[in-house]
What we know:
Shape: elongated
Number of domains: 2
Order of helices and strands: EEEHEHEEEEEEEEEEEHEEHH
Strand content: 25-35%
Distance between the termini: 45 Å
Number of helices: 5
Mean pLDDT: 75
Radius of gyration: 26 Å
Largest sheet: 7 strands, mixed
Helix content: 10-25%
Amino acid sequence: MLGALGGDIALHLLPLHRTATMSGFSVARRCRTALLFAAAIVLSACDADKSPTSLPAPPANASDYSLFDPEAGFIALGVLTGPLGTYDFHTSVVGGGLAVFGADRSIVFATTPPSPSTSLLYYMYFPVDASTWPGLTSAQVTIDEVNMPANRVVDSIRVVRNGTFLPPLIGPSSVTVETNYTDVIIVKFYHSVVEGPPPPPLGKGCTPGYWKQSQHFDSWVPTGLKTTDLVSKLFSNAYLYTLDGKQMSKYTLVQALSFKGGNGTVGAAQILLRAAVAAELNARYPGMGYPLTAVTR
Length: 297
């Protein structure tokens, strides 16, 4: 990393020829500006996915700016949807030639939530010095959203490469793109708000039926338990009972929430474990006020 990217001054798209003068240093931005302009047309052509067409400027220092070839590409990032708050991103790079990038960037939405019509794009990566990018040299650049609050998730990530939309990524909070010296890549993050379970009356908890539903799996997160954890993680003696030829300790917690119960000791064990797993989730959920304490092992 040669240095962090600086400045948040808008770089406006101009026709074909652009000359930027910084402290007497003049740089012609020729066909790269034409590509940017073409990309902007492609991006704005889709009403459902409008993208901002201005970018923060490269470093204002003339000696730093002289590193940038007018024909070089870049990777830019935008937060297109989500709630108010701070969005933190970490950039890591494998391979490629010389480049300038900021390892960490925070984008703050304090008063207006991000939207496609108002969000800006931010430079994340600049290749520099064409002599270090011979032939088909490429870099793997990973942008990872970090420090996300519990109530925010990444719905999708869209990548636009040289004006062409790539298939969306659904669910992950990071994306890795391959770039060469001239690629112009825009990465767009879309978010939504995740609501936890409504707080039950003090001293009461949510039922097994609540905890086993997939639309409520996000409520497991603050408990520290996972749907894939085994019953043995909480109740080691469950191995004493067998259901359908399998020790109950080897079922997952979410499976235990669906135990049907029945006659005899095996049926009673199912009822007990189903209620016990729900009780454990209630006891671990912050602020629920459940009257029982969680298992300590």
